[in-house]
Amino acid sequence: MRLAEGDNVLKCVKASRSGPAITHLLFVDDCILFAEATERGARSLKHILKDYEVSSGQCVNFDKSSVFFSTNTKDGEREVVSQILGVRRANDLERYLGLPSMVGKRKRLSFQILKDRLKQKIDNWSIRFLFQGGKEVFIKAVLQAIPNYSMACFLLPRTLCTDMDKIIANFWWRKRQNKKSIHWCAWKKICLLKEDGGLEFRNFAQFNIVLLAKQGWRLINYPDSLLAHVLKAKYFPNSDFYEAQLGNLPSFTWKSIWAARGLLERGRGWRVGRGDQISIWTDSWIPGNEADNIPFQVGNDNIKLVSDLIDSNSRSWKIELIRNTFQPVIAEKILQIPLAETVQEDFQVWRGEPTGEFFVRSAYKLLQETNLDPNGL
User: Fold this and answer.
1) Are residues 70 and 12 in the same domain?
2) Which superkingdom (predicted)?
C-alpha cells in the first residue's frame, strides 16, 4: 500500500493538508484500507489484494468485507467501485468492535446500545438470588465494564451517562422484579470513595473523562504515534496539546479528547532535567500540593525557568538564590529535588503516582477529591 502510494498508483487519505498520509490500519486479523473512490483506485486496490494473496497464501474474504464511501461520492462511482472490489456497500449504522463506524449528530442514538446491553445483563440475572454483596460485585465487575471501551474513545452524551447511572442505581436498590424501589441514599454519595463513606461505584460521566484523559496523556508522551501525528497536524501544528484550541467543526474524536484537557492540567507535573522547559511560576514541579502555586514576587523578572535556578557547570542548585527568592518551606522542597549528573530533558509526570505514570485509578480519585464537574473541565 505504501509503495503504491509512493508511486502514485494509489491515492490515500489525509485528515489535513500537512498531516500524514494514511493507506491502511491493522487490528488483529482485520484491516481498513483507504483509497480514492474511482475506477482506477478500485482496480489498483484489487491488484494489491491479489498480490497479497499470492505472496502470503492467505485469501481475502470478500463476503465479510464491505466498502464505505464519503458523502460527496456520486452514486455511479459507488456502484463501479463496489462491483470491481466485489464487496457490499456498508451503511452508517454498522459497528466495529462494538463502536459505531460513523457517529453523526444523533449521538444518543449511536450509543443507545450501551443502555440496552446494561438492561439485558440485568434481565438475565434473577435479583432474588443476589444479596447486596453479590450485587456490588456484579455491578463493578460486569455492568460498569460494559461501556468502558466506548468511553475510552468518545465523550458520551451527559444525558446518556445519567440514564446509565439510573439503571444501575435502580438495580442496586430494587428488592423484587418489576417493583419500584426506595433509594435510601443519593447515588452520588454511593459513588464516593470508601474512605469518604461511599462504595466506589463509578460515576459514568466522570469515568468517561478519566478514560479520555488517558488518551490525551498518550498523545503527549507518545508524539510519534500515528494518532498523535494526525491530530497535531490538524489541530495544534504550532503549539502543544495544552495550548491547542478546539477549532471549527472538530472531529468527534478530537472533541472528546480535548474535553479531558482540564483534568490533565490539574494532575500533571514536571520532573526536572535541564529545567529549560519548566516555568517556575506557572508549572507544577515541586513535590507537595502546598507548593503548586508559587506567588510571583516583584524583583524576580529575570528568574522565569527552573534552569535559572541550576548551576549548569556543577549540576547543582543555586542555594543562595533559591533561599533568597522563595519562602523557607518552598526553598527546602526545591533543594531536596535531586538533579542528575548527566544532563537530561525535562519530562512530564502524573503527580498522582510515585512512578509518574498515568493510571486511571489515581486520575479518577483526583476528579472525585476535587469535586470537579466533568463537563466544566
Assistant:
1) yes
2) Eukaryota
